[in-house]
Design brief:
This protein has helices spanning about 1-30, 35-45, 75-95, 105-115, 130-135, 190, 205-215, 230-240, 250-260, 270-280, 310-320, 320-330, 340, 345-350, 355-360, 370-385, and strands spanning about 70, 100, 120-125, 165, 170-175, 200-205, 245-250, 265-270, 285-295, 300, 335, 365. Strand 1 (about 70), helix 3 (about 75-95) and strand 2 (about 100) form a beta-alpha-beta unit. The protein has about 400 residues and is α/β, with parallel strands linked by helices. The model is unreliable at about 1-15 and about 50-65 (pLDDT under 50). The strands form 3 sheets. Strands 7-6-8-5-9-12 form a 6-stranded mixed β-sheet, with helices on both faces. It is built from 16 helices and 12 strands.
């Protein structure tokens, strides 16, 4: 028992050390771009270029035979950011390697659960999927003997056994070369108004974002939004469909179209839009008015039946902490759900978060409880509509 307490104390020292390093990097790189920030992270965690090569910390507590933690994540830039913000510091702290499966899809996670062949230990689930996961008893209870509850906010635990990580919004972006002055699109109604704002338009090929935007464009007020008038939504989509140059499914494709100025108006995730504007030098600006906000419906969780539940809980102890979340926000520009993380961001970056007060007060929040009940039906109808 005394030996275990000593080991726990050593681990706490490691947590403090890692968090202190992250705070130092966040402070010292204020005003730096994303590339400079990544380099500073590398210097702070020298030798962490590959998780398998990370040296074990002086107080690492993982037994040599302990399993790695397998994280089920989105691919591309999201995966790289999660590795830098969570995976590599976690391995530095504990000596436990992290391996990744990508790209994440909820149907694959559900199939593993239903077949009782769970292959992953932690996963970031968002939108209506988190409601489905709760209803299907797919989530392991959080172990607060491992996870430091005091490091989390009540907001992060709104979904019970999931720990809130980030919040994102679907926003309108317009080309400033096309509309250089004050006369530019400012709402979804403007996005739909091809007479007032003629130009090349692009939308995301996904039923939730398209439907919500269509109803906002049609003038539906937030207090009358749900239950969704499906027929009205598709009538609105009918009006804009002939004017859509492309429907994208991959965020990197949307970023490329912005960087190469192949589009004048595009709807996309705020983090990818900000990255493209700040780091890709795309001549666009974001319209925060009527941003379609996820509203914190995201959580990191350990799926029931995961092969390494002990390691999963250690990983979940990391993802909710302010310092780790602030790093992820700097890399992906998605708002941290831990409010203490916002204090670690420079004001110019904090204003780009969907949870900034000025952005929140003009946003439209999605009711994912409705979507959890209606998603399969809406998916079928949207795909049929696209093909018609």
């Amino acid at each position: 028992m005394i030996h275990q307490r000593n080991r726990d104390k050593a681990q706490e020292m490691d947590v403090d050390d890692i968090c202190a390093r992250l705070r130092m990097v966040l402070l010292e790189t204020r005003g730096s771009n994303r590339r400079q920030f990544i380099k500073a992270l590398g210097r702070a965690f020298a030798g962490s270029t590959a998780l398998s090569m990370l040296p074990r910390g002086k107080h690492a507590t993982a037994a040599p035979a302990e399993l790695p933690v397998t994280a089920f994540v989105f691919g591309g830039a999201w995966k790289k950011s999660a590795m830098a913000a969570f995976g590599e510091p976690f391995t530095k702290q504990t000596g436990i390697p992290v391996v990744y499966q990508d790209p994440y899809t909820f149907p694959k996670l559900r199939a593993m659960h239903e077949a009782k062949t769970m292959q992953v230990d932690v996963v970031s689930v968002q939108g209506g999927e988190i409601f489905q996961a709760k209803r299907m008893n797919m989530i392991m209870p959080l172990d607060f003997t491992v996870i430091d509850r005091s490091a989390l906010s009540d907001r992060q635990l709104r979904h019970g056994n999931a720990i809130g990580g980030h919040t994102l919004s679907h926003v309108i972006c317009y080309n400033k070369k096309k509309w250089p002055g004050q006369h530019h699109p400012r709402s979804w109604a403007d996005f739909w108004d091809v007479q007032k704002f003629p130009g090349r338009r692009v939308l995301r090929r996904e039923e939730i974002w398209a439907t919500e935007a269509a109803l906002k464009a049609d003038g539906v007020k937030d207090d009358e939004f749900y239950p969704i008038d499906v027929a009205r939504a598709f009538r609105s989509l009918d009006r804009i469909k002939p004017h859509i140059k492309a429907w994208y499914a991959d965020n990197s494709q949307a970023q490329q179209m912005m960087e190469q100025e192949e589009v004048d108006l595009i709807a996309m995730m705020n983090g990818r839009a900000i990255d493209t504007i700040l780091n890709g030098n795309a001549p666009f600006d974001i319209v925060w008015n009527e941003a379609i906000c996820e509203g914190g419906v995201q959580g990191w969780l350990a799926p029931m039946g995961c092969p390494n539940p002990k390691g999963a809980m250690k990983f979940l102890d990391v993802v909710g902490r302010a310092e780790y979340q602030a790093v992820f926000a700097r890399l992906m520009y998605y708002a941290p759900q831990n409010p203490k993380a916002v204090d670690l961001l420079e004001p110019a970056i904090a204003k780009l978060m969907s949870t900034h007060p000025e952005n929140e007060k003009v946003a439209h929040n999605i009711n994912y409880a409705w979507w959890a009940d209606n998603l399969p039906m809406m998916q079928r109808r949207f795909q049929q509509w696209l093909q018609s």
